[in-house]
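Lecture 7 notes: from sequence to structure.
We start with the chain below.
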Amino acid sequence: MTATTAVEKNMALLRTAYRLVEGGELDAAGQLLNEDFIANVPGCPDPLHGRETWRSGTQMMKDAFPDLKIDVLDMFGAGDKVTVLIRFRATHRGAFHQFEATGREVGYRSVEVYRFEGDRIAEEWVAPDLISLFQQISPAPAGH
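Predicted C-alpha coordinates for the same chain:
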Protein backbone atom coordinates (compact mmCIF):
# COMPACT_ATOMS: atom_id res chain seq x y z
CA MET A 1 0.00 0.00 0.00
CA THR A 2 1.48 3.32 -1.07
CA ALA A 3 0.91 6.67 0.56
CA THR A 4 -1.61 8.92 -1.12
CA THR A 5 0.20 11.30 -3.44
CA ALA A 6 -0.36 15.04 -3.47
CA VAL A 7 -2.05 14.73 -6.86
CA GLU A 8 -4.49 12.10 -5.51
CA LYS A 9 -5.26 14.34 -2.51
CA ASN A 10 -5.88 17.29 -4.82
CA MET A 11 -8.22 15.24 -7.02
CA ALA A 12 -10.14 14.05 -3.93
CA LEU A 13 -10.40 17.65 -2.66
CA LEU A 14 -11.79 18.78 -6.02
CA ARG A 15 -14.39 15.98 -6.01
CA THR A 16 -15.41 17.07 -2.51
CA ALA A 17 -15.76 20.68 -3.70
CA TYR A 18 -18.03 19.58 -6.59
CA ARG A 19 -20.25 17.55 -4.22
CA LEU A 20 -20.55 20.52 -1.85
CA VAL A 21 -21.54 22.82 -4.73
CA GLU A 22 -24.12 20.29 -5.91
CA GLY A 23 -25.58 20.19 -2.40
CA GLY A 24 -25.71 23.97 -2.14
CA GLU A 25 -23.11 24.02 0.63
CA LEU A 26 -21.26 27.01 -0.81
CA ASP A 27 -19.77 28.21 2.48
CA ALA A 28 -18.20 24.78 3.04
CA ALA A 29 -16.98 24.65 -0.57
CA GLY A 30 -15.50 28.13 -0.21
CA GLN A 31 -13.44 26.96 2.75
CA LEU A 32 -11.57 24.66 0.32
CA LEU A 33 -10.29 27.76 -1.53
CA ASN A 34 -7.37 29.97 -0.55
CA GLU A 35 -8.50 33.34 0.82
CA ASP A 36 -6.79 35.00 -2.16
CA PHE A 37 -8.26 32.50 -4.65
CA ILE A 38 -7.77 33.46 -8.32
CA ALA A 39 -10.43 32.74 -10.96
CA ASN A 40 -9.59 32.94 -14.66
CA VAL A 41 -12.93 33.00 -16.49
CA PRO A 42 -14.04 33.53 -20.10
CA GLY A 43 -14.98 37.09 -20.95
CA CYS A 44 -12.83 38.64 -18.22
CA PRO A 45 -9.52 40.07 -19.45
CA ASP A 46 -8.07 40.03 -15.93
CA PRO A 47 -8.26 37.34 -13.24
CA LEU A 48 -10.88 37.69 -10.51
CA HIS A 49 -9.74 37.46 -6.89
CA GLY A 50 -11.13 36.19 -3.62
CA ARG A 51 -13.47 33.57 -2.20
CA GLU A 52 -16.41 35.98 -2.29
CA THR A 53 -16.05 36.46 -6.05
CA TRP A 54 -16.14 32.68 -6.51
CA ARG A 55 -19.10 32.38 -4.15
CA SER A 56 -21.19 35.06 -5.90
CA GLY A 57 -20.60 33.45 -9.32
CA THR A 58 -21.42 30.01 -7.99
CA GLN A 59 -24.52 31.31 -6.19
CA MET A 60 -25.72 32.84 -9.48
CA MET A 61 -25.43 29.37 -11.10
CA LYS A 62 -27.25 27.66 -8.22
CA ASP A 63 -30.03 30.28 -8.25
CA ALA A 64 -30.61 29.71 -11.98
CA PHE A 65 -30.00 25.94 -11.85
CA PRO A 66 -30.86 24.76 -8.32
CA ASP A 67 -30.68 21.03 -9.19
CA LEU A 68 -27.19 21.37 -10.72
CA LYS A 69 -25.40 18.04 -11.14
CA ILE A 70 -21.68 17.87 -11.87
CA ASP A 71 -20.46 14.72 -13.62
CA VAL A 72 -16.71 14.21 -13.79
CA LEU A 73 -15.98 12.70 -17.21
CA ASP A 74 -12.19 12.70 -16.89
CA MET A 75 -9.67 13.96 -14.35
CA PHE A 76 -5.89 13.88 -14.23
CA GLY A 77 -3.18 15.72 -12.40
CA ALA A 78 0.50 16.54 -12.41
CA GLY A 79 2.50 18.58 -9.95
CA ASP A 80 0.27 21.17 -8.29
CA LYS A 81 -2.42 21.09 -11.00
CA VAL A 82 -5.51 18.99 -11.75
CA THR A 83 -7.36 19.11 -15.06
CA VAL A 84 -10.95 17.95 -15.31
CA LEU A 85 -13.56 17.50 -18.02
CA ILE A 86 -17.00 17.84 -16.48
CA ARG A 87 -20.59 17.81 -17.64
CA PHE A 88 -23.15 20.01 -15.96
CA ARG A 89 -26.81 18.94 -16.00
CA ALA A 90 -29.63 20.99 -14.54
CA THR A 91 -33.09 22.49 -14.94
CA HIS A 92 -33.23 26.20 -15.82
CA ARG A 93 -35.41 27.54 -12.99
CA GLY A 94 -34.10 31.09 -12.52
CA ALA A 95 -32.75 34.00 -14.56
CA PHE A 96 -29.23 33.48 -15.91
CA HIS A 97 -27.47 36.40 -17.60
CA GLN A 98 -30.08 37.84 -19.99
CA PHE A 99 -32.20 34.66 -20.06
CA GLU A 100 -35.33 34.25 -17.95
CA ALA A 101 -36.13 30.79 -16.55
CA THR A 102 -37.36 28.36 -19.20
CA GLY A 103 -37.92 25.22 -17.13
CA ARG A 104 -35.80 23.35 -19.69
CA GLU A 105 -33.37 20.61 -18.80
CA VAL A 106 -29.91 21.59 -19.98
CA GLY A 107 -26.48 20.03 -20.22
CA TYR A 108 -23.09 21.39 -21.21
CA ARG A 109 -19.41 20.63 -20.69
CA SER A 110 -16.48 22.49 -19.22
CA VAL A 111 -12.73 21.97 -19.26
CA GLU A 112 -11.21 23.19 -16.03
CA VAL A 113 -7.70 23.42 -14.60
CA TYR A 114 -7.06 23.94 -10.90
CA ARG A 115 -3.83 24.86 -9.10
CA PHE A 116 -3.40 23.82 -5.48
CA GLU A 117 -1.36 25.26 -2.63
CA GLY A 118 -1.13 22.96 0.35
CA ASP A 119 -4.59 21.56 1.07
CA ARG A 120 -6.54 24.32 -0.70
CA ILE A 121 -7.52 25.31 -4.24
CA ALA A 122 -5.50 28.41 -5.14
CA GLU A 123 -6.48 29.13 -8.75
CA GLU A 124 -8.84 27.99 -11.50
CA TRP A 125 -9.01 28.33 -15.26
CA VAL A 126 -12.48 27.42 -16.53
CA ALA A 127 -13.72 27.07 -20.10
CA PRO A 128 -17.44 26.21 -19.94
CA ASP A 129 -19.28 25.73 -23.23
CA LEU A 130 -21.52 28.74 -22.62
CA ILE A 131 -22.50 28.92 -26.30
CA SER A 132 -24.15 25.52 -25.95
CA LEU A 133 -25.82 26.54 -22.68
CA PHE A 134 -27.11 29.83 -24.10
CA GLN A 135 -28.52 28.02 -27.16
CA GLN A 136 -30.44 25.69 -24.82
CA ILE A 137 -31.97 28.49 -22.75
CA SER A 138 -32.62 31.01 -25.55
CA PRO A 139 -36.26 31.75 -26.31
CA ALA A 140 -37.64 29.81 -29.28
CA PRO A 141 -37.84 31.90 -32.46
CA ALA A 142 -41.25 33.48 -33.09
CA GLY A 143 -43.69 31.16 -34.83
CA HIS A 144 -42.15 27.97 -33.41
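Points to note: The mean pLDDT is 94. The first helix runs from residue 6 to 22.
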